[in-house]
Input
Amino acid sequence: MERITSNSNSRIVRLGKLVKSAKMRKEEDAYIVEGVRMCSEIPLDRLYGLYISEEMEKLYDSSELYRDVRALVEYAEKKGICYVVSEQCMKKASGTEKPQGILAEVRMKYYLIEHICGDSDRDSCILILDRLQDPGNMGTIIRTAEGAGVTGIMVSSDSVDIYSPKVVRSTMGSLFRVPVYVSSNMVKDIECLKKKGMVIYGTHLDGVNLYQEKLDGPMGFLIGNEGAGLSDAVAKTADRLIRIPMEGNVESLNAAISAAVVSYEALRQRISNK
Output
């Protein structure tokens, strides 16, 4: 394995830029994944490079902590894309004071609108995210979507970058498995889904109680910006309005929580109807 000890090394400089710049990630078609658990789930055919700290190298053969990444390390070594770096280089590359000892450069995967609908039109259940800006919300929604059996996610192009380090960490690996389609024209794409028979639900205070609505067939749920909610144009695409019932003086829920509530209610009803 090649060893890197200088912060000015071109590979280390590149990694640091990929961490910080959404523009560079897009131009280079790559993003950064850090940590044992996340790295262990990387599809091998999407690995560009693997970086291990000197400290991790010392523990690698004896620590059970690293057993899950051994296949990845062996693959990277075979391909000649595995590097051992000094602790200072790892800090520089990850942009953190306490890096996790293993970091990977991963190729992005692009999806078309057809990919988010799943294998069966009837079972299609998608989340449509309009202008979300919080990385934690975005990552949590992607992770929750996998757990709730959501077939895919549509994200407006002016939302937070789904490949930013904070989003990637929050997905806990679900980003590798949940199809996420980035839309440059949400209204047009939603109308396309509607023409294929998908019912689009929008959350609204004047909507029908979520738990009284029959959720059947292909469906999509609109989730709006954390502060401003749905844009008027996107809101107008809704076929039906639903309301998440709330007690007390609470007027609204966090975007990620709202996505979880509607996704799991859709899952509950699909299971009950089988």
